[in-house]
From TrEMBL, chains A, B:
This is TetR family transcriptional regulator. Keywords: DNA-binding, Repressor, Transcription, Transcription regulation. GO terms for molecular function: DNA binding. It comes from the Bacteria. Residues 14-33 bind DNA.
Amino acid sequence: MWRVLSTRGFEGLTLRAVAAELGASTGLLTHYFPNKRALLSHALEELDRRSLARPRRTAPADGSAPPAGLARVRASLLDVLPLDGEAAADNRIWVGSWDHALADPELAAAHAGRYARSRTALTAHVADAQRLGELPARADPAALAAGAQAFVLGLVVQALFAPEEFSAERQTELLDAYLAGLAGLAG
Amino acid sequence: MWRVLSTRGFEGLTLRAVAAELGASTGLLTHYFPNKRALLSHALEELDRRSLARPRRTAPADGSAPPAGLARVRASLLDVLPLDGEAAADNRIWVGSWDHALADPELAAAHAGRYARSRTALTAHVADAQRLGELPARADPAALAAGAQAFVLGLVVQALFAPEEFSAERQTELLDAYLAGLAGLAG
């Protein structure tokens, strides 16, 4: 399924294509996934599972974590970006799910809920940074978090379409310039 | 074609679906579009045509235009956002094209080229704003433009998934806060 998704996208994710990759019959696959929608839901759950299982800057394998505040805001934004091949593949699949999700109210609501939860978590990190004086106290933390989430999402899309222009280094520079802008407001 | 795209996305854009909307036979449609790829290319060209034909803040119908500098940067970013129903429908179709485009090297290159041209135009507006002292002269205008493009692209995605949370007013507030951050760096 992953091989089909990373090369042909959600549009190319059919029971037949996955069966062919498995060297199995479409009939056998239908036993587990009665239709394409079941396959898509499974793909999205698997994407969640993979994202959580991946080592994250916000929760490294060694148990350390960036200190609360701007460092943690930065780490959680870096965790979203396609800075290596695996993150790029997952992001390509995630971005590819938008076409299908926008046509399916239930999936669209699930995507929206996921983004809302992610903004809530980010808002808490932003509020920490405000208490520490690293971000302007007078700004609305929810607005800063929504802006930061938009920034990294758009950077994901740009990096997927122009990976040479948006190297990991370039993505990090752009994020750091963005965060410097937020912090600059404090002055 | 537009009705199919706005409800079912690129995934649902088939010769059969468009023929059904037209009340025509698939055979007749095949006369004009030999395959799905031809239909998709036509949809993307039509999207370009519609975008150019739409009244734009950067080039209003009355011939006026925002003054060079930060006002023009802001206007060209507002032109991207789904601030009304028509812009939302076009953006939904555009975002929906990414899954397909990322699976097709030729389309991916065309999308990347389009974004690169848009960044080049934006970089010129940013440079104007720098000359006018509205944005920090020491910043790289290409980096500011790439960051601003990422910001609005991500905001488009957020607004499509959560239109109630990201009203036109909220999108504009978030963009203005972002621009204030860029300008704040000047101080």
